[in-house]
Amino acid sequence: MSFWLRLGRLCLDSLCVPIAAPFRHASLIRMLVQREIAARTSGTLLGKLWPLVQPGLQVLGFWFMFAVVYDMRNARGPSFLQYLLLGMLPWLCLSEVLSRSTGLFREFSVLFARSPFPLEVLPSVVVVIPGIVYSTVLVLTTGWMLGVVAALKAVLVIPLLLLWALPLLLLCAVIGLFVRDFGQALPFVLTLLMYVTPILYFPDMLPPQVRDWMWLNPLADWMTVIHGLLTGTAFPMNSVWRLAALWLVLLVPGWLLYRRTLLHVRELL
């Protein structure tokens, strides 16, 4: 019983501490986010609009490429562009967060190298701006394509995706601290994952023997859930159970490694 009790406490701790950090240190996170926005947009004409303009321009670029240049509306039907954008925006958000997390400790080392600093807030700082930006663009894009009801559902997509990615973020931060090559390799790995995940194409475009193995890719499950949720179509609950099981399996190890690293991160840097 003691083992299961300890495991339950670890699960609770690994979930509550990172999620409670934004509430316990709200003013600190707000200050860091404002500092980051100022660093990104200071001296620009559009100012604080730039974080929203960039993914908005990406949406227009995908629309021009696939709807105008390749005329995919006629080749694959009018739903292709909708399928592409509703999957690509969450993917871009996830990719940005995971890529940045590999340099998490080094990026903020100035803040905690010589003074006390609650390191558990760093994951929150990394996800705030991409979460807000891509949620806004996804809601607007969904409302434009599918209407108000779907746009209200889209509000949940990015927060749920980032919550699910929390163990991955913690693991990437720890690995990136010890293995500097990991930060260079991860964008390449994420690009490969994008190609093997049904984002740029419908799942039925894959050969049947390949589709039989797609359940091994949790991001394919995410695409299934996102499209089903936003379009109001049924999606297999097996996808939800697989995502939840993977999250639970990674959550405790990810938090334990991150928490152990916090004790030595100053010395390592």
General description of the model:
The chain is an all-alpha fold. The protein has one domain. It contains 15 helices and no strands. Helix 1 crosses helix 14 and helix 13 packs across helix 14. The radius of gyration is 20 Å and the shape is globular. The protein starts with a helix and ends with a helix.
Q: What structural category arises from helix and sheet content?
A: mainly alpha
Order of helices and strands: HHHHHHHHHHHHHHH
Instruction: Please indicate the percent range of residues in DSSP E strands (runs of 2 or more).
Output: under 5%
Helix coverage percent? over 70%
| Rg over alpha carbons | 20 Å
Shape: globular
Poorly predicted residue ranges? none
Number of strands: 0
How large is the count of helical segments? 15
- Count structural domains: 1
Q: For the terminal residues, how far apart are their CA atoms? A: 40 Å
- Note the quaternary state here: single chain
The biggest sheet amounts to: none
Mean of residue pLDDT?
81
